[in-house]
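// run 5 | inverse folding | seed 20
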């Protein structure tokens, strides 16, 4: 199920044996996985911007112990070929036959961030998120393990950045992915008070 672009791939190559190795490993480009990333805030749809970031992984002081972000519903598959009735029917069938998130409060906490996504450029996955009461004009999405590296030769990490407006409350992260496999994504936020947080999304991307 794994692919060469996902963040766990270094562990299968034999090159990563400890934190010494991970820190020296080159960060992975999220565009290898993500074909398009957007945020819908209920009014506006903003397309993420690719950039090499110097602020994805190293706060000036410390991280918030717990991320204020959480899932706010069940991820849903939407066709990008809306003029084809058969694709709309296939979209409905896929959502009917796939449970993309287990929201049970009895589920073991380490599994609560796991979601299933449908891969392929013809599908968008709408992932509902709650950002809490804070305002975030600086959101960055990348492979989670990139935050454990020292970055590229300039010390930066490739990310998809959202800075079009101050996001707050309920949003929808809209992802089109082009590789299958298991991957951990990290959504890094900096709120208006300068607090840094990282939300983990453990994604299983399937056909």
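// decoded
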């Amino acid at each position: 199920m794994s692919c060469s672009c996902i963040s766990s791939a270094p562990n299968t190559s034999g090159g990563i044996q400890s934190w010494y190795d991970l820190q020296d490993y080159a960060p992975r480009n999220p565009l290898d996985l993500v074909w398009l990333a957007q945020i819908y805030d209920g009014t506006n749809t903003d397309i993420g911007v690719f950039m090499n970031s110097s602020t994805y992984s190293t706060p000036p002081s410390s991280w918030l112990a717990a991320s204020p972000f959480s899932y706010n519903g069940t991820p849903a598959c939407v066709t990008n070929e809306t003029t084809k009735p058969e694709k709309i029917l296939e979209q409905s069938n896929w959502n009917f036959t796939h449970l993309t998130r287990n929201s049970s409060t009895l589920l073991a906490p380490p599994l609560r961030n796991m979601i299933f996504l449908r891969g392929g450029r013809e599908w968008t996955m709408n992932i509902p998120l709650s950002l809490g009461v804070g305002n975030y004009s600086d959101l960055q999405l990348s492979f989670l393990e990139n935050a454990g590296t020292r970055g590229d030769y300039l010390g930066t990490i490739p990310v998809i950045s959202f800075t079009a407006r101050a996001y707050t409350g309920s949003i929808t992260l809209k992802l089109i992915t082009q590789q299958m496999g298991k991957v951990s994504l990290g959504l890094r936020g900096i709120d208006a008070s300068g607090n840094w947080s990282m939300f983990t999304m453990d994604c299983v991307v399937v056909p």
